[in-house]
Each structure stands twice: as C-alpha cells, then as structure tokens.
Design a protein that fits this description.
Blueprint lengths: L3 E7 L8 H10 L3 E8 L5 H10 L5 E6 L5 H14 L4 E5 L10 H7 L7 E5 L7 E3 L2 H18 L10 E5 L2 H6 L10 H13 L2 H5 L2 E5 L2 E3 L9 H24 L4
Parallel strand pairs: 1-2, 1-4, 2-3, 5-8, 6-9
Antiparallel strand pairs: 4-7, 5-7
C-alpha cells in the first residue's frame, strides 16, 4: 500500500530540477507518491516535469497551475491532492533538494512516535552532520526563529526548512482546507493553525517534533530576495493578529 505522498512545488525550476534523485527515491520505496506542482512557470519546467513523470507514471504525477499563485498556494493545491490519496503520511519538499530525499526516512521515523503528527526538518549545525548555510542566512534565521517562537509561544528552532512530513489526519486536512493568509512564511502559519486547533501551544508541543537533518546545503538560484525579509516581518504580524483573533473567539464569555 502507498505510504507517503510528497508534494514538490516548482516555479521556473528548469535548470535546477534533477530527475534521478526523485526516480531513485521512487524505485527504493514503492509506497512513495510524488506530486510535482508547476506553479505557472514561464520557462520549460513543464517539459522537464513531463519527462520525469513519464519515467515512473504510477508513482510520479504533476499538477499544472494556470498562473503563478505563489509557493503557499502551490503547496496547498498539492497537499489537497495528497490528502485525497490512500496514504498514511503527506508532506512537502523543496524542488532544489537542498535537503536530499534520503532525509525523508528520518522524518518518517519521527512520525512513528506516539502522538506525533508533524515532523519538521531542522537545519542544526552539529558534529557529524553536514549543514552548509551562508553566515547571513544562518544568523538571520536565528533572529527570525526567535521572533517566531515569541509569536507562537513555541520553542521552535527552524520553521523555514523546506522538508515537512505530516500524518494524514482530519486535523492536518483542515489546515490546508483554506488558502493561507501569508505569502513568505506559510510554514509558520501552519504551526499557528495547528496550535489553535490543538487548543494552544502547550497541547501542540506533544504533536510536533523537529528532526535535525544529516545533510542540507544552499543551492544556487534561490528566488529569495531582500524584499522577502520585509514581507516575512509583515506576515509574522498578520499571524500574530490572526492568533489573537482566534483566541478572542474561543475565550469564555464573562
């Protein structure tokens, strides 16, 4: 039986998409399904994806969005399809494979723990692990993670790593049922939505695990720009406002 459906959002990835790692992962795990979402690419990404999927049509498929909707919506559309499949786990992964697909098994192992519903790949530089990040990205990431922890009231180390795996549950399905409010940090919004559904940050702590990756490396061609930092800050304010609004709705009447 299929066990995992993995969504891979793609926007103008013609030069960075590598067919062989995806095909190898499919060969090694017959229960793996990979859903590529072409987010209205303007290059030849669609042709590359067509070729890749044709080589393993039972396990690899693609969704073509008519126009560029942004990564959050591309992921959401892919996750809606993934959640409709007969699998036990769903997730999403960055197309550039900064985190190699070999890391998928560690996230899957984390979901075997009682009560765990979400495994987050985490880029932690430890001895015996190969995490290659620019100093600017590393330190800006630490500042951002501190701000996120304060807003969510969760001791999260790394929300922005593009490697996430969920159990296929009704609660996870509800998270992806509505479009995201944010453009740059929808990963943080996912945690916020789960926290509200769980009854608060304390309850969520028992259901989420961060998994330090063995390997991760910066890949040339990232679409992040300086404007993304401002956008992420504004998005974090939106999430803080949304959480406060949800708490107001559930607060007992006096």
């Amino acid at each position: 039986m299929p066990s995992t459906a993995l969504v891979v959002p793609c926007y103008n990835e013609e030069k960075r998409l590598q067919a062989e790692p995806f095909l190898r992962a499919a060969r090694e795990d017959p229960g793996l399904r990979i859903i590529f979402v072409d987010d209205g690419s303007t290059d030849h990404t669609a042709d590359v994806l067509r070729e890749i999927c044709a080589r393993a049509p039972e396990q690899l498929r693609r969704i073509d969005l008519a126009r560029n909707a942004g990564k959050p919506e591309a992921v959401r559309q892919g996750m809606l399809l993934a959640l409709s499949l007969d699998v036990s786990r769903v997730g999403y992964w960055d197309a550039d494979l900064a985190a190699p697909l070999t890391e998928l098994s560690a996230l899957g192992d984390a979901l075997e723990r009682p009560g765990v519903e979400l495994a987050l790949g985490s880029r932690v530089r430890l001895m015996g692990r190969s995490i290659e990040r620019s100093l600017l990205r590393h330190y800006s990431g630490r500042v951002f993670a501190t701000l996120v922890s304060g807003v969510l009231r969760l001791p999260v180390y790394d929300t922005q790593c593009g490697a996430k795996l969920f159990l296929r549950t009704e609660r996870v399905a509800r998270v992806f049922s509505q479009p995201f409010l944010t453009r740059w940090i929808f990963d943080v919004e996912i945690l916020a939505r789960l926290a509200v559904q769980s009854g608060g940050p304390a309850a969520l702590l028992a259901t989420v695990v961060e998994v330090p990756l063995l390997r991760w490396h910066d890949v040339a061609g990232s679409k992040l720009r300086l404007g993304a930092a401002l956008g992420a800050g504004l998005d974090l304010l939106r999430i803080a406002w949304w959480i406060r609004r949800q708490q107001g709705r559930t607060a007992p009447a006096r």
